[in-house]
Amino acid sequence: MRSYLSLVPISARVHRRQSRMTRICIILAVFLVTALFSIADMWIVSEKDAMIDKHGNWHILLQNVPGIETELVDGRSDVAVAAWCDTINTDADKDYYINGRKTAIYGVEASYIADIRNYPIEGVYPQNDNEILLSEDAKELFGIKVGDIITLNTPAGDFNYTVSGFCEDDSEFNSIIDGCCIYMNMVDFQKISSLNSEDTNPQYYIQFTENASLKKAIDDIKGQYGLTDENIDENTAVMGLSGASSNESAKNVYPLVAVCFLLILISGILMISGCINSNVAQRTNFFGMMRCIGASKQQIVRYVRLEALNWCITSIPIGCLLGVLANWLMCAILRFLVKGEWAYMPLFGVSVLGIICGVAVGIITVFIAAHSPAKRAAKVSPVSAVSGNIETPQNVNRVAKGRFFKIETTLGIHHAASTKKNLFLVAGAFALTIVLLLSFSACLDVVRCLLPSLSDFSPDITIASQEDTNSIDKNLTAEIAEMPGVENAFGTMYEIKIPAEINGNETMIDLMSYEEFMLKSTKKSVASGDLSKVYGDTNYALTIFSQNSHLDVGDKIKIGDNELEIACVASEGIGSISGSPVVVCSEETFTRLTGEQKYIMVNIILEKDVTEATVDEICSLAGENSFIDRREDDNEIKSTYWVFRLAVYGFLVIISLITVLNIMNSISMSVSARIKQYGAMRAVGMESRQITKMITAEAVTYAICGTIIGDVFGLLLHYLIYEKVLISHFGGVWQIPVASLMIIFIMVFVSCIVAVHAPSKRIRNMAITDTINEL
Amino acid sequence: MKILANKRIKILFLRIILSVLIFTLLSASFAALNLKDAAIYILACSAAMVIAVLAVCFLYFREQDRIMENAVAQITEYISGNHEARIPCDEEGELYRLFHEVNSLAAILNAHAEKEGRSKRFLKDTISNISHQLKTPLAALNIYNGLLQDEPGDLETVKELTALCEQELDRIEMLVQNLLKITRLDADAITFEKKPENVADMIKDVELHFAYRAGQEKKEIRLSGDEGISLVCDRDWMMEAIGNIVKNALDHTKAGDMVSIEWKRLPSVVQIKIKDSGSGIHPEDLHHIFKRFYRSRFSKDTQGVGLGLPLAKAIIEAHDGTIEVDSRLGTGTAFLLDFLIPTKL
Amino acid sequence: MDLLEVKSISKTYGSGETAVHALKNVSFSVPKGEFVAIVGESGSGKTTLLNMLGALDTPTSGKVLIDGKDTFSMKEKALTIFRRRNIGFIFQAFNLIPELTVEQNMIFPVLLDYQKPNKKYLEELLAVLNLKERRNHLPSQLSGGQQQRVAIGRALMTRPSLILADEPTGNLDTQNSSEVIALLKEASKKYEQTIIMITHNRSIAQTADRVLNVSDGVLTDLGRCRE
Question: Across A564-568, A578-582, B99-103, B158-162, which has the greatest mean pLDDT?
């Protein structure tokens, strides 16, 4: 043994069990930070990949610079790829055809296709003259393959080319121009261009290397060739993610992550500090003895610090590993299950930044957290080793004569109430968690309402009349409903700006019909009134709550000679188109009032395993009407909502964990401080069961105080959020969030049990004589 | 990192590191800001750093010098006679360990000096004690001699007087012998011939020595213990010690009482217990019975000089042993002798 | 100058009606190399007195001079270092570090002073204390007497000028008690250590050179056993 600090690893090996709590906290903090930073990093990478895919892997392009010496640009060490690209007929309004289809003509260098656009090629880039590349969909469109000869019809004449390959280019663009693209080398392009007297604008695309300082390179090139800003166009999407120009999403992510880092740091420090404190409090005898045999205060502080850092050695790597694994899991989930904008998340990506931050968080939190317990350990007086007395307790108040409870419960309550500071901290932590839980659940409800398409009858496909008239036949609905893969098909009839009299006032309303399925689905969002009256041909209608309409149950609406009474108010539904209040009635009532028989819109809900063939069939059935496929959008919104929900729940879990740990440590420390008393009580005849009851009473006191305060403030906040935000915008009524309260109750219960378990086990296993000292 | 335990050295290093750091930062900022004449500024900074480092070192060594001077002053002070002078040494670091050891040295010297003084005083006291003790029998002898000279013819008186003289001479002899023994023990002038001796045999011999007297006084001496136990000691001296204690026991018991001698071997000591069921020792005397020439006022033994038990204790302690006494008035006394078994090195 | 000089120490707990006078005007001095026993019944103030001597507690009045230094006028850090180098403690409850072996326990205070333990001295101590075969055992593998011997070794390792023992045989049976006392005595003679031992067992106190009696906070010198 070379130094007194060599005791630390020896002691750590023996006391693995006691330090388990602390090590778990360290692992948790490191895991959270690593996972968070890794996911953020991966997200940035995925965004970059998405951008590159969409817009191309280039940073700047030079245009209107004739005679530029591209070799010099090429030769620059910070330029990775540079290629020419020239275009004709990208608007598809000139007469360039292949087999009757409109064609856009691109003159490109090989590197443009391969490195800048990253289009996969089937076949090869044109090697010889009169060879061209065609876009992928041309294969099916014209029924040709590699090696075939096609004819390009231009205003100046027809040209034959051999197809050397197909490239998967931007199919969206192709469907917009309803044609295809043809890629030829610069020589052939020049030929076409000059023959057709096209005034083209060749662009020189430049992709810089990874390590290039983009700003410096751009300024350099500008200066070298005397270019102005007009000559240079930046690919903001890709540059932004490299940090060279400003891009909104990248900018937003990092501050958010930094804030989370700070939050985790602070909560980590609190958790770990509490655990180490509790650990130190159980070992006052040891520290007193150290002081007696000559350790100075400084040496004890150093000892406790080194102990804490020692735990880091095993905990930090585990935390980092868990973080990386969680990162992989999250990426996999986002990429394969949630999809949408997350489809580009890289799998098995390791974020170095994440790991470094995780390690930093681990070391910093432990270092700071060990400070206060170290000071406390150093304060232990050497006398405590000689006589075994821990510091004499502060002024002890008289215990109130508890007539309600047995003496052990009264004592427990007294212990809890005696140190005001402890009571404040622990109850406060409870209250804070409860308040946060309730307000976050209210916020989640708000978010849910904000996202429009999450209701039950949000459709996957909408077929709408092109002219906004009720012109779609009812049979269409029936036909579509029969198809396999279709869950539901329903239609709406709509009439806007009907002059009506509401309670005597002349105004306008929008009248809408709901068929059976839609009425059933509205049941869930009924704010007041009775929905059943609206079914069938009646004089009752329902209204959708909105800020502009203040229709309520019982209001009478006169349309012409007919009178409708509002029987029910719903908070959700198809909104108003013209801004007038929306009145909804059954189909029969609608036909009776307006005489319309056809739908203006048919909404279709598909089953999960629907085939594309079915969708195409529906599309063809739609005929002249507009066919809108909402599935992608829906998915995106849903997935975003879920991600948001997960994040919030994760945050709440962390806060709850801190609270639970807090109360565990408080109880543990309070028991350690009174260990002699408990020993003496046991010696005079108190059963272990009664001691457990005493400790439980202490824990429950903290819990009850915290819960009461937390519930009061939490419910208040909940109510406020509902009033101010939810009800004013969406209607509805505030209800006590029973589910949240149940969760709170369970959490409090579990934390009490967990907090009491370890100390009471410790006392039960202790020999009575260990704690009583002779004088 | 032991050197850094010394606060001053730690501060020295910190100051040097600080100056280097400041210099590096300043130079870096000059270089980064691309000021003109940056080179000159950096040069000036480096010069300043060197001066700072030198200054810090100078301060440190000056402080060290002062500390050394102070220490030397204290040592000279001590040499010139102030035996209370000490060097302040309550800080961490090797230098202060040195001072601490010097202080310990001083304390040890002091202790030796005092021991010398005490032995001198002790010698003086002993001599005066001896002379005091001898005075009485010598005076008696004088008287008897005078009487003899006065009446040489009276045979009866001569016989009586010579018997008395013999008594006194015996007394003087015993006294002188005991005194010499104890003084030589104190002066470490005796070399014990320590050999492994069988405890059972030794004690049996002691019993034999007192058997006659015990029989005469109708007191029982009982022995018990293992035959095989041995103790490294000087036989004669050990028997003398045990004998003195047994004699003391016999002196304080009456007819019918019992003196028992037990011996046993414990893992690291050999224990001999001498118990008697006699009159016991008064608690006030308990702490003083091993003092020289101590005569208890409750003691009925007028013959004793008060050297038996102190001599026994001195012998036992010279054999790396301890002696304890437990006694209750009226019930009895027990003497416990423990001898450490020396381990083979 | 005596190694330890106690000048009119008093210690009072509480005030007014509930005042408890643990020590009343205690004075004595101990020269270097003496083995002193302090006896008294429970609650007589013995442990309080020992705490004062070891500078673990401050008296209400009076001072304690160890080797001429007034321990209560020293600052906390200096006092710790002074205690580390000059005072050794032996407790009734052994107070060994359970995770360290016998040898490591003994050299621990030396390590606290950033010193390298003297190998020869360590071997010698182990021999005298009869712990050579047990040098690599943990305290849990030792008997009470052996543990106390390790504690004695630990106190002796730094060669302090003063050793304070609080009921060193309190937790031991008679066999072990005899051993421990014999060892203490030997150490006192061999290394010229000043030992102050608290005990309530008056027969053990006999082995000391000098006995002091504390009764109700008042100290009486029962005299030396060896003049």
Answer: B99-103
**8 Å CB contact of C91 and A295:** no
Give how far B83 is from chain C: nearest CA, Å: 8
Instruction: With CB atoms and an 8 Å threshold, state whether A383 touches C97.
Output: no
Per-10-residue mean pLDDT of chain C, 227 residues long, equals 86 81 87 87 79 84 89 86 87 83 90 87 86 90 88 88 87 79 80 86 80 84 63
- Three-class SS state of B153: coil
The β-bridge relationship of strands A60-63 and A203-208 is: antiparallel
- Are A133 and A126 in contact by the 8 Å Cβ rule? The answer is yes
The number of CA neighbours under 13 Å toward the Cβ of A703 is: 24
Task: Give me the pLDDT at residue A386, please.
Answer: 63
DSSP state letter for A503: T
Confidence of residue B4 (pLDDT cuts 50, 70, 90): confident
Q: B32 CB near a chain C CB, below 8 Å? A: no
At A163-183, the pLDDT tens digits run 888 887 776 677 667 778 888
Q: How far apart are CA A681 and CA A694, in angstroms?
A: 11
pLDDT at A396: 58
The runs of H, that is alpha helices, within A500-608 are 516-522, 587-594
Rg of the Cα atoms in chain C? 17
B343/C contact by beta carbon, under 8 A = yes
Chain B: closest CA distance from residue C223 (Å): 7
- The shortest C-alpha distance from C159 to chain B (Å) reads 10
Using a CB-CB distance cutoff of 8 angstroms, which residues of chain A are in contact with residue C166?
A: 386
Tokens 């007191």 belong to residue: B219
Q: Taking CA atoms, what residue in A is nearest to C114?
A: A3
Report phi then psi at A206, rounded to 5: -125, 130
pLDDT score of B68 more than 90: yes
DSSP state of C33: T
Element (H, E) at B197: strand B195-198
The yes-or-no verdict on residue B121 having pLDDT over 80 is yes
Question: Can you give the pLDDT at residue A245?
Answer: 39
Q: How far apart are the first and last CA of chain A?
A: 35
Nearest one of B195, B343, B194, B199 to B270, comparing CA atoms: B199
Write the DSSP string, A339-384.
Answer: -GGGTTPPTT---HHHHHHHHHHHHHHHHHHTHHHHHHHHH--THH
Q: In the Cβ-directed half-sphere of B260, how many Cα atoms lie within 13 Å?
A: 9
Spatial neighbors of A94 by CB under 8 A, at least 6 apart, are A88, A155
Give the separation between CA A383 and CA C91, rounded to whole angstroms.
11
The three-state secondary structure class of A400 is: coil
Residues of chain A short of pLDDT 50, as ranges, are: 244-247, 390-393, 774-775
Tokens 């070379």 correspond to: A2
Residues belonging to chain C with any Cβ–Cβ distance to chain A shorter than 8 Å: 42-43, 47, 50-51, 54, 56-57, 76-77, 80-81, 83-85, 89, 91-93, 95, 97-100, 104, 107-109, 111-114, 154, 158, 166, 170
- Give the minimum alpha-carbon distance from A420 to chain C in angstroms, rounded to a whole number: 25
> pLDDT tens digit string along C168-216?
887 788 777 877 888 888 877 777 788 999 888 877 887 788 888 888 8
Q: Give the pLDDT confidence score for residue A548 in this predicted structure.
A: 64
Section B338-343 average pLDDT = 77
Residue A392: predicted pLDDT: 46
| Nearest partner of A278 among A771, A675, A672, judged by Cα | A672
Whether residues B268 and C113 touch (CB distance < 8 A) is answered with no
Using the 8-state DSSP alphabet, how is residue A553 labeled?
T
Residue with tokens 């009575």: A768
Dihedral sign from CA coordinates of A316, A320, A321, A325 = positive
User: What is the rounded distance in angstroms from the CA atom of residue A96 to the CA atom of residue A93?
Assistant: 8
Pairing state between β C87-90 and C162-166: parallel
